[in-house]
Amino acid sequence: MTEQIDIIQNIKRLFTREEFPAKTLLVKEGTLTKKLFYIDRGCCRAWFNNDGRDVTYQFLFEGNFASSFETIISNEVSWYSVETLEPTVMYSVGIEDFRNRMDQHPHIKAFYYHYVEKRLLFYQKLFVAHIKDSPEQRYRELLAQHPEIVLRVPQHYIASFLGITSVSLSRIRNRK
Amino acid sequence: MTEQIDIIQNIKRLFTREEFPAKTLLVKEGTLTKKLFYIDRGCCRAWFNNDGRDVTYQFLFEGNFASSFETIISNEVSWYSVETLEPTVMYSVGIEDFRNRMDQHPHIKAFYYHYVEKRLLFYQKLFVAHIKDSPEQRYRELLAQHPEIVLRVPQHYIASFLGITSVSLSRIRNRK
DNA sequence: GTCTGACGATAACAATTGTTAATTAATCAC
DNA sequence: GTGATTAATTAACAATTGTTATCGTCAGAC
Question: Which residue from B50, B120, B130 is facing A119, i.e. has the nearest CB?
């Protein structure tokens, strides 16, 4: 845990501090992402275009990383975009630079892979929630487990994240 | 790619070959898993109990690994069970033994983390498919992308995996 | 062989969600 | 502030899925 804090402090020391207003595009669908962002303050959403409609599949808050994993892992273009939802404070590093640091510092590599492991378990749970629960149950669960999302994110993005229409989410919210 | 093949050959050389009939329980929900299995021949399903109903959330075929990631990563008990669906040939290794080998052989560690990265992207896509597609679209997609699942696995497990009832899957299959 | 249980198809009905459109509320730009 | 745009609510109806139950088939146990 103290090791975790050390890593965060190293990030703040070694990465470049940047500030962005709301609705800034950090990662653009179909391109090679140049930077990895650590979110110090603010939040983002990741989404992609599905037959002309936005599908938001992820919210990222303080303490998380925003980038295209595909680019980091295998230099493929991103299939999604990332944009800020609020004025945001980031610490960024170039992807190539990040890869070099991982090779040079085993503890950075270990931290990165631990993060990947956690993300794997996170997405596994997210998927499982979709096959075992109804949309209403998923909303209640989101409210209970991640109230910050419901408080800080516009409803139609949450509806998209839950896999339902904004009309349906509005109905669920207004059930007795 | 040749490196991949080397790793598989090492697995077959270093792990213990085991054969299991269909319906053998390899991982039991709520327990600490003792082994990591490499599937050489046959297939498995991973599932858990949800208010008295089985929910199958994963099928594992030849070339995949079966175990509890939670146990490997952080020594927590498994929240799911794994059982064979067909007579199966496995290569197994004790979890503790596997951890030691990872520490001693960097290429095993690299292989493991590469596998974790791939699984992360896999589950991310699985989750995304659930928020962007209808159950019918997901079934058609499964049929197109993974026909082996539809051919080798009983329908009610597939329905569970798709997040619908077996009645609904039967209807979808019989739409013109 | 016969019995049993598991599996899949089908039917009838309830409940939920999607779609479209209209209305109100909130937010943003100037 | 004012006007324009975007977001959220509500309504009406269509489409889909869930639920429960019945039936036929098949495989395995004995």
Answer: B120
A38 with A90, same domain? yes
Shared domain for B57 and B68, answered yes or no, is yes
- Among B159, B137, B138, smallest CA distance to B57 is for B159
Shortest CA–C1' contact from B134: which nucleotide? D16
A34 lies in the same domain as A57 = yes
Which residues, 6+ apart, have CB-to-CB distance to B85 below 8 Å?
Answer: B22, B23, B42, B43, B44, B45, B59, B152, B153, B154, B157
Are A67 and A113 found together in one domain?
yes
Chain A neighbors of B55, CB-CB under 8 A: 128, 131-132
Which of residues 36 through 95 in chain B touch A, CB cutoff 8 A?
48, 50, 55, 57, 69-70, 73
**Chain A to chain B, count of Cβ pairs less than 8 Å apart?**
70
Number of H-type helices and E-type strands within chain B: 8, 8
Range of the domain at A163: 133-176
Note whether B155 and B78 are same-domain residues. no
How far is C-alpha A55 from the geometric centre of its chain's CA atoms? 14
Give, in order, the Cα–Cα distances in Å from B30 to each of A126, B75, B133.
20, 12, 32
Regarding whether B160 and B83 lie in a shared domain, the answer is no
Tens digit of each residue's pLDDT (9 = 90 or more) over A27-72: 999 999 999 999 999 999 999 999 889 999 999 999 999 999 889 9
CATH number at residue B14: 2.60.120.10
pLDDT tens digits along B118-163: 999 999 999 999 999 999 999 999 999 999 999 999 999 999 999 9
What are the tokens at B145? 């992308």
**Together in a domain, A114 and A139:** no
Strand partners, A19: A89
Distance from C-alpha of B33 to C-alpha of B72, rounded to nearest angstrom:
8
Which residue has 């040749």 as its token pair? B2
Which nucleotides along chain C are within 7 A of a protein C-beta? 7-12, 16-21, 28
